[in-house]
Design a protein that fits this description.
The complex is a heterodimer of chains A (477) and B (213). Chain A is mainly alpha-helical and 477 residues long. Chain A has helices spanning 3-18, 22-25, 28-45, 60-85, 93-111, 115-133, 139-172, 181-187, 193-211, 220-226, 229-256, 260-282, 288-309, 313-342, 353-356, 358-371, 378-392, 396-421, 438-456, 460-472. Chain A is 76% helix and 0% strand. In chain B, 74% of the residues lie in helices and 0% in strands. The chains are: A mainly alpha (477), B mainly alpha (213).
């Protein structure tokens, strides 16, 4: 049954490849993503037992990522129908097929309990994203694609070396070699410390570069800036979660070994450095899509800080992962609409979006407030919990720096977002075909509604799931 | 471990230097292909016969010695370039650095806490040296194809280390990793083709429109 998550989108990809017509092919996306969402929901309620060899299972961490990714993907595929109707001249066969293959690969990441299999799936997500980033087929997008491919491939190769080290540490410790997660967690304390140590570092660098933790984030602004809004949403809200899940698997092993504290310390530092980078580069950013990339660097930083703090912050960090996915979805989709309407993404030309695209601009503004941690939206709750956990643990430096960076980022981001949304429309602006309409506005609107609801009320099943997942990471519930 | 395997590993190390010291792209591709084939035969020498090992050997030789070089050579032909021009790190400095890294790899490997059955083997130093050479090519060259070759050298180095755990790696994982590599090179080949069309060169230092001011 778990395999349906992987096979269903693959079937969709094959089907979308076969449909000859640009206009009709697009409909394959929502059909299969809704089916995927339905299967995911079913699996969340009735989870089947692990596969006989223990390779495939859906644990609480996997469930959280599956939920976030499946919702985001469904929204994006509904949006794609409206979006691609504006771009019928450009062939979308590769786009539709790659999107569905990517959904399949992300699902495989979620259900694999074997680190080798997880690595393969993660590498597959990297590769399927390359044609998506290159959708616009111009000089800038090819540059972004090349940087993305090269940095992520090298990063993920380093992660493979880390996995080999981890496997080798079991050989040196005279144990049965295995990369199965339960076995590794059980034997974590008995593994050879030197090799285990090296493995953690390599895995952190490898998965960290895929996730975009500073200083390994250099591909992010280019890829997010040049990819279509819908692809950006999936990169920032979906793929980030997959890389994070890989890191969480390593975290599980580290927490069970004697090196948990050191691993946390490194994560905490990398998280704060990421937030600092974001704060510096966010200021005076004249391209609003690149600005969102730095916002993504900031939020993986926040999650890393939460993981570094451990204990009560783990719950908040996992909640933040979901909040970040949903809010980034709104931001990128709204940005995509504004980009279409003004045919530019530079703040020099894009001003007064509230007049030209009132709905998208309002969504952009609301999502900006949400992502910077303003109440009553969901990210406020998770960020507040992280800060209070930092101060509760007596870690005043972390808490203080965290708040400082949040404030700086709020100011930096506001100085880009407010002129874009409010401002006066430049008089000599070229006319474009795009106007706000239901197909491109409703999907992000639904997502924004979710962000608001989660900010006011977290359903009990989700709370239980988050607690259970935090317990898997060694946190107290 | 037998002496034939050791000789093959020494050959692998020499190939690193050949790639580091040449500007001719087609020659580099062949070098990396030969290295791939050598690596592919190693599991057969190191491990006792089994269907698992023979499957790995055949598929590696096929992919690293056949498919990948064909893909890259095709990309070179389409882009109509033969040589690497003015690399960031020159050929002589590359060779010197390569020699330095190789000797460091030997010193480093002697100090590593290896399992007793792996002590004194050439595999670990060869893996580290190949990895570093790949990194050197990746960082030091301008042309996109050279960077892909650097990435392949790195992969070869990682694969060499993986030889120590061939029993541990399930066939599915090996095959999956190899498939990912193949698809990766395929995608990179297409991207290179588009770079050369867009910029009429595959010099990646021209990819600078997206610099942060």
């Amino acid at each position: 049954m778990l395999w349906a998550l992987v096979l269903l989108p693959l079937l969709g990809a094959a089907l979308s490849w076969l449909v000859p017509d640009n206009r009709r092919r697009v409909w394959v996306l929502p059909v299969f993503s809704l089916a995927h969402l339905a299967v995911s929901a079913g699996l969340l309620v009735h989870t089947p037992p692990p596969s006989p060899a223990g390779w495939i299972w859906l644990d609480s961490l996997g469930k959280l990522v599956l939920m976030a990714n499946s919702v985001l993907f469904t929204i994006c595929s509904l949006y794609a129908v409206g979006y691609l109707s504006y771009r019928l001249k450009r062939p979308n066969r590769i786009l539709c097929a790659s999107l569905l293959v990517c959904l399949s690969a992300t699902s495989l990441v979620v259900i694999s309990q074997h680190l080798g299999l997880l690595w393969i799936a993660l590498e597959a997500t990297t590769l399927t994203m390359a044609p998506l980033i290159y959708f616009n087929h111009n000089a800038r997008s090819i540059e972004a694609t090349w940087k993305y491919l090269l940095i992520c491939s090298v990063g993920i190769a380093i992660a493979l070396l880390g996995l080999f080290f981890l496997a080798y540490s079991t050989i040196v410790a005279k144990q049965e070699v295995s990369l199965l997660l339960p076995a590794l967690i059980r034997d974590a304390a008995a593994l050879h410390p030197g090799w285990r140590h090296a493995a953690f570092i390599f895995l952190l660098v490898g998965f960290g570069s895929k996730m975009g933790l500073a200083p390994l984030h250099t591909w992010k602004p280019d890829a997010y800036g040049e990819a279509p809004g819908l692809v950006g949403a999936l990169l920032a809200g979906g793929l980030v979660n997959c890389a994070l899940l890989a890191l969480l698997r390593v975290y599980q092993v580290a927490a069970a070994s004697t090196e948990g504290a050191l691993f946390q310390q490194v994560l905490l530092t990398m998280g704060l450095v990421s937030m600092a980078f974001a704060a510096v580069f966010m200021a005076r950013q004249s391209d609003f899509k690149r600005m969102l990339a730095y916002s993504s660097v900031e939020h993986v930083g926040i999650i890393a800080v939460a993981l570094g703090l451990g204990k009560g912050a783990l719950f908040a960090g996992l909640l933040h992962m979901i909040n970040n996915s949903l809010t980034k979805g709104v931001l990128f989709l709204a940005c995509g609409n504004i980009h279409r309407a003004f045919n530019s993404k530079s703040t020099q030309f894009v001003r007064g979006a509230l007049r030209r695209t009132p709905w998208s601009a309002a969504l952009f503004l609301a999502a900006f407030l949400a992502i910077t941690g303003s109440p009553p939206f969901a990210p406020f709750v998770s960020e507040f919990l992280i800060v209070s956990s930092a101060f509760g643990q007596g870690n005043h430096w972390t808490g203080g720096l965290f708040l400082l960076f949040l404030a700086l980022i709020f100011i930096g981001m506001a100085s880009t977002v407010l002129p874009v949304v409010l401002g006066e429309v430049p008089p000599d602006l070229e006319r474009t075909r795009y106007r706000d309409a239901v197909p491109t506005v409703l999907p992000p609107l639904v997502l924004m509604g979710l962000v608001l609801v989660l900010g006011l009320w977290i359903p009990t099943p989700l709370q239980d799931l988050l607690r259970d997942a935090a317990r898997l990471l060694g946190g107290e519930a | 471990m037998n002496s034939l395997a050791d000789q093959l590993l020494v050959l692998c190390l020499l190939i690193n230097f050949a790639v580091l010291g040449t500007s001719r792209l087609a020659f580099s591709v062949r070098c990396v292909a030969v290295q791939g084939v050598l690596l592919g035969t190693l599991p057969a020498l190191v491990h006792p016969f089994s269907w698992h090992v023979s499957f790995i050997v055949v598929s590696i030789i096929l992919v690293k010695g056949g498919l990948i070089p064909v893909l890259i050579i095709r990309a070179i032909k389409k882009a109509e370039i033969e040589r690497e021009f003015s690399p960031f790190i020159g050929y002589i400095p590359s060779l010197v650095l390569g020699a330095l890294f190789t000797s460091l790899a030997f010193i480093f490997a002697a100090k590593l806490p290896l399992a007793p059955e792996h002590e004194g083997l050439l595999i670990v130093p060869a893996a580290a040296a190949t990895l570093m050479s790949g990194f050197l090519v990746l960082m030091g060259r301008r042309k996109a194809i050279s960077q892909v070759l650097g990435y392949l050298l790195m992969e070869n180095g990682i694969f060499l280390f993986g030889l120590l755990l061939a029993d541990a790696m399930p066939v599915m994982v090996e095959a999956g990793a190899l498939l990912d590599l193949l698809v990766g090179i395929f995608v990179m080949g297409i991207v290179i083709n588009h770079i050369s069309r867009e910029f009429s060169s595959i010099d990646t230092s021209r990819l600078s429109a997206l610099r942060e001011e």
